[in-house]
Specification:
alpha+beta, FAD/NAD(P)-binding domain, D-Amino Acid Oxidase, Chain A, domain 2, 8-stranded mixed sheet, 10 helices, about 35% helix, about 30% strand, globular
C-alpha cells in the first residue's frame, strides 16, 4: 500500500489527524489495533450509559473539530459547556479562586465531551472521508530513507508513505521505533474516574479541590444534573477507593462538595475506573520522516484537564506546517517537521512545567507550604488581569 501519510493509533487524536489530512487533500492510511471492549459502539435503544472517560475540550479543540465538521456531528444533548470553575485549597482556611466565562469574555470556558461521543462522530466522518484507508492490525517495524518511510505490519503487508504520524499513546510504539529517549517520572498516583447524578443543579461549574495528602479531586459538569469525577489519588488511597462501592465514594465527595451539589447518586451502571499518572517528556517529538502527536509526544498530570487539548493543538500545528510547506518540499521533509517541533515547543513546555509544579506543590502537607499556597490562590483571585491571562492561555485562545 502507498499513501502520503501513515498514522498509527486508534484514539480521537489519531482519527482527527486522519480526517484533517484527508480533508486537506492527502491520501491517508490509518493503522489501528483491533478494537477492544471499550471501543465506541453504535447507539442502542434508550439512553447510553455515561462514559467515565471525558475530556474538557478548550477553544483550540473546538475550533479544529468545527473546521473538520465534527463538532456539529456530536450528540449535543450530551455536551456540557463549562461556564465557571471554582478551585479550592486545602485546610479550614484554604485559599480559593474562581474563573467564569463572563469575566473571560467568552461564551464558555470549555466543553465536557465523552470519549464515546467524540469517537462516534469521528468514525462517522471517516466513513465518508476521501482517500482514507483504515487497516486493522499491528505495525511491527518502521524503515526510513531520504525519500520516505515504510511501515511494516504483522502478516507481511507494508505501507509506503512520506510521513509517519505516531498517535499511539503514552507508551508509543512509534516513538520507541525511532529510539527517542524520554524522561519518565511516576506521580505515585492514580486517577479514579466515575459519574454521579447530583441533587442540586451544577450550573455549568467545574469544581476542584486540592486536598494535600488525599490528592486532587475534580467534579466536572455533565449534561443534565450529572457530574464526572476525576480524583488524582495517591496509590494507597486509590486502592481504597477502588475497593469501596460508588455509594461510599459519593459520601466522601459530599464532604468536599458540602451543600453545593446536594446528594450524589452513582449513575448506572455503577462502574469506576482508574489509571496510573506519570510525567512523560520525550526528548524530541520528531524523527526522520516521523512526527509524534498527542500522548506519544507528551503526557502531563490531569489536574488542569489539558492533556487532550495539547494533542489537538499538535494536530492543528502539524496540519498547518504541512499545508504551508514550500512546493518543492515533501510532506515529511525535515524542515517541515522542524517547524512543527518549534511551533509546539513552548506550549508543551509551559503545560508540563505548570502541571508538574502544581502537582508537586499541592502534594506536600508541610504547614508553611500549605499556608503559602493558600495565600497564593487568594492573591491570584484578586488580580483580575493576571487571572484573565491565565484563563485565556488555558482556553487555547
Amino acid at each position: 500500500m502507498a499513501c502520503d501519510i501513515c498514522i498509527v493509533g486508534n484514539g480521537a487524536i489519531a482519527k482527527t489527524a486522519a480526517l484533517g489530512f484527508s480533508q486537506a487533500g492527502h491520501s491517508v492510511t490509518l493503522i489501528a489495533p483491533p478494537a477492544g471492549p471499550t471501543a465506541a459502539a453504535p447507539p442502542a435503544a434508550g439512553e447510553q450509559p455515561w462514559d467515565v472517560r471525558v475530556y474538557a475540550l478548550n477553544h483550540t479543540a473546538h475550533t479544529l473539530l468545527s473546521s473538520l465538521k465534527v463538532w456539529g456531528a456530536l450528540d449535543q444533548s450530551r455536551v456540557q459547556a463549562v461556564d465557571a470553575m471554582a478551585v479550592n485549597g486545602d485546610g479550614e482556611k484554604g485559599g480559593d479562586i474562581e474563573f467564569d466565562a463572563f469575566g473571560a469574555h467568552v461564551g464558555a470556558l470549555a466543553w465536557i465531551v465523552e470519549d464515546r461521543n467524540l469517537c462516534q462522530a469521528l468514525d462517522a466522518a471517516l466513513k465518508f472521508a476521501p482517500n482514507v484507508t483504515i487497516v486493522s492490525g499491528s505495525a511491527v517495524r518502521i524503515e526510513t530513507t531520504d525519500d520516505g518511510a515504510t511501515v511494516h505490519l504483522d502478516g507481511g503487508k507494508s505501507v509506503a508513505c512520506s510521513l509517519v504520524v505516531g498517535a499511539d499513546g503514552g507508551h508509543s510504539w512509534v516513538r520507541g521505533q525511532c529510539d527517542i529517549g524520554l524522561d519518565y517520572r511516576s506521580y505515585n498516583q492514580r486517577a479514579v474516574v466515575a459519574n454521579f447524578a447530583c441533587e442540586k443543579p451544577h450550573h455549568g461549574v467545574a469544581y476542584q479541590w486540592f486536598t494535600g495528602a488525599d490528592g486532587i479531586v475534580a467534579l466536572l459538569p455533565l449534561a443534565g444534573e450529572r457530574v464526572s469525577l476525576v480524583w488524582s489519588a495517591p496509590d494507597a488511597l486509590a486502592d481504597t477507593l477502588m475497593r469501596e462501592s460508588l455509594g461510599e465514594l459519593a459520601v466522601r465527595l459530599a464532604e468536599l462538595a458540602e451543600d453545593k451539589l446536594g446528594v450524589l447518586r452513582p449513575l448506572q451502571p455503577e462502574t469506576a475506573k482508574d489509571f496510573p499518572l506519570a510525567l512523560i517528556r520525550p526528548h524530541a517529538i520528531t524523527a526522520p520522516r516521523v512526527a509524534l502527536v498527542g500522548d506519544a509526544a507528551h503526557v502531563v498530570h490531569p489536574l488542569a484537564g489539558h492533556g487532550m487539548n495539547l494533542g489537538f493543538a499538535d494536530v492543528a500545528e502539524l496540519l498547518k506546517a504541512v499545508a504551508e510547506r514550500e512546493p518543492q518540499r515533501a510532506i515529511g521533509d525535515e524542515r517541515v517537521l522542524a517547524r512543527y517541533a518549534r511551533a509546539r515547543k513552548e506550549d508543551i513546555f509551559l503545560m508540563q512545567f505548570a502541571t508538574d509544579s502544581l502537582a508537586r506543590l499541592f502534594s506536600t502537607d508541610l504547614e508553611p507550604v500549605r499556608i503559602a499556597r493558600n495565600l497564593g490562590l487568594n492573591l491570584l483571585d484578586k488580580l483580575p488581569m493576571l487571572k484573565r491571562r491565565l484563563i485565556t492561555h488555558a482556553m487555547g485562545k
